[in-house]
Amino acid sequence: MKKRSLIISSLAVGGIIFLTLGHYEMAYTPKSEKIVNPQQNVTTDRNYILQTTTRDAQLAQELTPEHIEFGKESFFKDTFGNEVFFTDIMGIFNGPITLVNIAKAINQLGGKGTTNLQVKLAEDYSIGDYSFKKGDKLDTGLDVPKGSYIPLGVKFVYDKGRVRAGITCAACHATTTRDGQVIQGAPNTDLNIGTVLAMATNTASYFTHTEIKSIKDYITERSTSFTTPDGKANKLPDPEKLEQFVDSQIIEWPKGSNDTTIEFKNNPVQIPDVFTLGDHPYGWSGQGLAGPYKGLTAAINNAHTQNMDATSQSELSKKVLQIDKDVYLGTLLQNAANSEFRYDSKKHGTPSEFFKTIDPTPGTPGVNELIISSSYPTASYMSSTGLLSSSPGYKAWEQMNAMSAYMNTLQPPQTVGKGINVAKGEAVYQKAGCITCHGGTYFTNNHLIPTSEIKTESSRAIAFAPTERLFGPPSVWDPSTPVPLPDNPKALPVPLTPFEQSELAFGWAHNNAEGGYKIPSLLGLKWSAPYLHDGGVAVGADNEFGAGNTLFKNIQADPANSLRALLDRWLRHKVIEANKEYFKTARVTGAGHNYWVDEQAGYTAEEQQALIDYLLQITSKEPTP
């Protein structure tokens, strides 16, 4: 929380009321007594240091308790200014979901907390087969810790007479128990990202996350036009027609899922846990492997620079998306929620000229707090956009590195298995060959597996392929570099072994690589259901099959039943068929990972159950070699 003047704030039944003379920010960071899974004490742990630091000492930052604590604060509080994009441009709170009704919903909890904040809708909303009425309670999936009046991972900002709300890492990568305690690093598996975004008034600003073939298909007689200084005439897509299409695609994202790439594929992936120590490479396709913390810093940066501010992609839109920069910006801004950010060709000249007049962070693309990377204007393995999330007053990469250090101290809550079954399950685990990929201290061999072998939905594995057109060698600013950047800051190359270069090309689907998925750690499976990268292997406690019959009906995926469907080919067939029936546009299948532990593979029901019991109690125990 920052205070720049005398401020009084309160959260009341009537809404969020800020009485202020300046700027005010509110976000929630849990105290130690509110946390279920305490952090590991790692600053003197040699194994931790070897697992997290870069080979090049110049790129590292000193690992201290203070550095890790700063990472925790950043994890729970830093938005890097994305409240401007989500509130002023996308308009999340200008439609059926309002800040006033969010405040009312929290107030009605009476301090008890919740794992799913239910917010009354301020107006009717319908798109395709989805219909909601004013007064209906929407399951947002937002968690509110006990005693808090702010949702976990949401930051409210009052500035220049407006209240905005932005998103921090904790909205997706932390959750609460039913009694309101916080689990650090566990995915928020019921966060209703798709529906919340679809209800925004300018969801079209997320159009690159859909199966759109060409924005020219959305030009109608209502489209506006503008002329660039070279005399070229351009038309923008009809905002209403585009909005309806984008809404119809994004509302199909299952709870706990988000589309994280901009390659015009509607391929949401489930939110991963961030029990990150030893779980490299990072990202579902393993694109995070270079630089500090074995690529974790780069993976965190990619999430903030690419997915939290669509305007940040304006400089690469031509090469990566084949969309002219002005057309791209105009499409994002022509229906912006805040009139100050709304592009009007009759008033503002070109979209890029207009953007310069309203950009709260001039000097770099985007409205977030960004700096150019040392490879800019090219991208690199360190940044898919050529930009870095960094706030003024800090060092370049300081916040990201601190969050990496913090995430690597997180571990799942301890679970207790059924003793005899756990021992039997470990024997089945080895007999079935699970240990081949999921072996070692962290239950992963830290490799990628080709899509031709794993056979899961493949589009996400090749999502970064278009970036090859603007790639340069990986480098970072010297860790001592202040933000804003000085003149001629010092850049340091990021060393890569031949193996890392090969794996990165594979993870980014460069050099004609087919692409693949990382072999994830199995630590904390109890907290990460449903399973596979698309979250498609979802089964409820009463055997409801498929993501549509569970997540979309406010039924949590049961870890044991979902694991059984992962292992049993007959049950998986039922899951896949249910997903086919439900999803019309989103690429959620639950297919692949055909490694069976079922009757047809020679295992009894008792052995299958023993394996499930074993998998669900894994938190830190090393498997037998």
Structure description:
By secondary structure, the chain is an alpha+beta fold. It has 3 domains: 7-30 and 78-191, no CATH class; 203-407, no CATH class; 419-616, no CATH class. 29% of the residues lie in helices and 12% in strands. It contains 21 helices and 21 strands. It has a 3-stranded antiparallel sheet. A two-stranded antiparallel sheet has the order 1-2. It is globular.
A few lines on this structure:
The chain is α+β, with helices and mostly antiparallel strands and 625 residues long.
Strand order of the largest sheet: 3-8-9
Beta-strand content estimate = 5-15%
Going by helix content, strand content and strand pairing, the class is alpha+beta
Averaged pLDDT, please?
Answer: 91
Oligomer state of the chains in this structure: single chain
What is the rounded Rg? 24 Å
Largest sheet: 3 strands, antiparallel
Low-confidence stretches: 1-21
Count of structural domains: 3
Count every beta strand, where a strand is a DSSP E run of 2 or more residues. Answer: 21
Described by the principal axes of the CA atoms, the overall outline is globular
Cα-to-Cα separation, first versus last residue: 48 Å
